[in-house]
Specification:
This protein is mainly β. The chain has two domains: about 220 residues, Sandwich (Jelly Rolls), CATH 2.60.120; about 70 residues, Immunoglobulins (Immunoglobulin-like). The protein is built from one helix and 22 strands. Strand 18 and strand 19 form a beta hairpin. The longest helix is centred in the first third of the chain and has 12 residues. The structure holds calcium ion (CA) (3 copies). One calcium ion binds next to loops. The site of one calcium ion has 8 residues, from loops.
């Protein structure tokens, strides 16, 4: 019990009361990620949505209907499926997501302006049963209900999807969940996005990780009510994070796509010193670098099959890359 109390005390003392979290896209210090950023290696391709009610306080109105599941997969395009009050979407991944340097995925909503925001909790799982929620934080006041067309300030929000306008993803870093033993942050197979109802009425209020009520536009009793899910961009998964999936032991990360169009550069991110080679199909070394910088870019001049080979403190690995016209 004492341990719990001390832990809670530490928790409260460490709450930044006037925390200013990342501001809107384009402002200094923003961590919003544009959909065209090189950081994205691919986009979620499987989702299952459980739509919520138009108004949780009057379930006789039924559930929201706007959009289809297909609107939430593939690259962010502004087309969405609405989740409704407390509705949720679960993305699944054939290649599990992994924890690399910095953010590992981002979620896109369709807010038409920087301050007209609708929020969602984000949870991850390695088995589809046990989910861990990112520790959300809302510093929005809780005295006056934010109405359907009222504003929120992104600076008041952390670890809640939907804090940026359309085409700008909210980033999530799996490293923040590394103390939870019920998930493996280097093998995330499911990501849940759950609409924050947003009501400050204690019957329906949803709390952040610091037990604050999250005040979010409510009611939104229309067909497109609740969080509008556009896409989930993947930054790190077990395929592009090669070798050991442990950022403390040294690995490399292929940030570009495979197959790689000839017109595009190969991007490699290094976390530790590596001896790095690119070999052609016949094993001929066409590029070598014994101490590449953090990010290495390489342009191929011919299509074909190549092997990327690296050696570092954790061993040696090989990655097969196809380069196409
Ligand atoms: Ca990470
Ligand atoms: Ca909501
Ligand atoms: Ca979409």
């Amino acid at each position: 019990m004492m341990r719990f109390v001390i832990l809670m005390l530490f928790f409260y003392l460490s709450i930044p009361t006037y925390a200013q979290y990342a501001p809107a896209a384009g402002k200094v210090g923003s961590n919003a990620l544009h959909k065209d950023s090189i950081i994205f290696i691919s986009w979620a391709e499987n989702v299952s949505v459980k739509r919520g009610f138009l108004d949780i306080a009057d379930t006789s109105l039924g559930r929201v209907t706007h959009g289809e599941e297909a609107n939430a997969i593939g690259k962010a395009d502004g087309a969405v499926i609405s989740l409704g009050d407390g509705g949720e979407a679960i993305f699944t991944f054939d290649i599990p997501l992994a924890n690399g340097n910095g953010p590992d995925f981002a979620i896109f909503e369709n807010a038409f302006a920087d301050e007209f925001l609708e929020l969602a909790f984000v949870e991850v799982s390695s088995n589809g049963v046990d989910f861990v929620r990112f520790p959300s934080h809302s510093l929005t006041q809780t005295n006056l209900q934010v109405g359907g067309f009222d504003k929120l300030q992104p600076e008041n929000l952390n670890n809640l999807a939907g804090k940026f306008r359309v085409f700008f993803g909210t980033p999530f870093d799996l490293q923040e969940l590394d103390t939870f033993s019920i998930i493996d942050i280097n093998s995330i197979t499911h990501i849940k996005v759950k609409d924050v109802i947003g009501s400050i009425d204690t019957s329906y209020a949803m709390k952040d990780a610091f037990f604050n009520t999250i005040n979010d536009p409510y009611p939104t009793a229309f067909e497109s009510g609740g969080f509008d899910l556009d896409a989930l961009g993947i930054i790190h998964n077990r395929e592009n994070y090669l070798g050991l999936h442990d950022p403390n032991k040294g690995l490399i990360c292929v940030k570009s796509q495979n197959p790689l169009p000839l017109s595009k550069e190969l991007w490699i991110e290094f976390t530790h010193n590596s001896d790095f080679k690119v070999l052609d199909y016949n094993g001929r070394i066409i590029y070598e670098n014994t101490s590449p910088a953090n990010i290495l870019q390489f342009q191929f001049t011919q299509k074909g099959v190549y092997f990327i080979k690296w050696t570092n403190v954790s061993g040696t690995g090989v990655y097969k890359l196809n380069v196409l016209d």
